[in-house]
Amino acid sequence: MRPEDYANKNLKEAIENTGDSEEEIHDMRVSLRKYYVVSSSLSKLYYNPECLYITRRVLKKLGIIRDFDVIGCYSIDREKEVKYVLDKVRLLSGCYLPKLYGSKLMVYEKLYFIYEGIKKEDGFHEFRKKVRNSYYLLESVGEELSKNLKEISRELGEIRDKVIKATCNFSSNIPYDEGIVLEVKAILREAIMKSEFEHLKARFK
Fold it and tell me: What is the pLDDT of residues 1-31, one digit of tens each?
């Protein structure tokens, strides 16, 4: 599967999602986030600012709904928020990506950029975002190592929910094992070294 096909597959799933249950809202959020991460990473090849803007807005609302459903630290008009999401998601029907030459290279360039940007000093939320995005990008090119990052991302998500449920502090910096940083960087390095892009592999020598 090409990265743009992966993005389109997830966009289609998000658009077709009815949002009738908490699980469907969660699934819509995951699908739309996968679309956004990959499509924004391919913006040098195909850039549609309106689609990216709408997707960001919808993802923000979905995050609010999801936190209300799972954590429940604040009250919202859930029905109103879900209606907003469903109305906006329908606008994304014209946001499918065309076939893009060089899309796989762009994904690996982004993965190397993330690799270089991961630091032990990263706050928990920033590090978790980098892990999650790397997982989506590796999955978009069919790399099996994406499964390793998926598991780490899941564990970090559980830590986040547990801490926020206990404190209702969404901005708190959550401590995490710095060994995970080295593990994630090792996975990204291995994935890049398995690719066909010699210029990226040469950066590790």
Answer: 899 999 999 999 999 999 989 999 999 999 9
Give the alpha-carbon dihedral of 36, 40, 43, 44, to 10 degrees.
-150
pLDDT digits (tens, 9 = 90+) for 73-121: 889 999 999 999 999 999 999 999 999 999 999 999 999 999 999 988 8
- Give the sign of the dihedral formed by CA 174, CA 74, CA 89, CA 24: positive
Strand, helix or coil for residue 71: coil
Say how many CA atoms lie within 13 Å of 149 toward its Cβ: 30
The token pair at 165 is: 């449920």
Amino acid, res. 42:
L
C-alpha to C-alpha distance for 86 and 79, rounded to whole angstroms: 11
State CA 88 to chain mean position distance.
Answer: 19
Chain centre distance of CA 60? 13
The residues near 190 (Cβ < 8 Å, ≥ 6 apart) are 145
Q: Quick one: which of 63, 16, 19, 59 has its CA closest to 36?
A: 59
Q: For residues 152 and 124, give the distance between their C-alpha atoms in angstroms, rounded to a whole number.
A: 13
Q: How far apart are CA 67 and CA 26, in angstroms?
A: 10
Rounded to whole angstroms, the Cα distance separating 132 from 1 reads: 20
Report the alpha-carbon distance of residue 39 to residue 57 in Å, rounded. 15
